[in-house]
Predict the 3D structure of the following.
Amino acid sequence: MSLGKRIQELRKKANLSQSELAAKIDISYPQMSRYEIKEVQPPADVLKRLADVFGVSIDYIVNGSLEQKAERDIDDNELLQQFKEVEQMEEEDKSTIKKLIDAFITKKKVQKLAQ
């Protein structure tokens, strides 16, 4: 989901019109529209005010949820699904899986250094 769509979704969840949100964060209605529709990147101070109004982090407004970030960054759908399943496990099981992954990564780094 794009930044503009995320702002729009948050605004709708907050039951605010574009003009109401613009007034709350002290910008013009046309500028608010640009952020949502034309995908114009808001400056940091506007992102901060948006985050305050919606009660979320700036990171969430810019990048989305952790799951959205993972879906955007991980190309292997099977691996992504496995991570989602691991996330639902108990902490002890998650810790074991993390240790296995760390061990495999370390092994690959050592092999690469040995070449």
Notes: Helices lie at 3-13, 18-24, 29-37, 44-54, 58-63, 66-73, 77-87, 91-114. The chain has a mean pLDDT of 87. DSSP finds eight helices and no strands in the chain. Residues 76-114 form one domain.
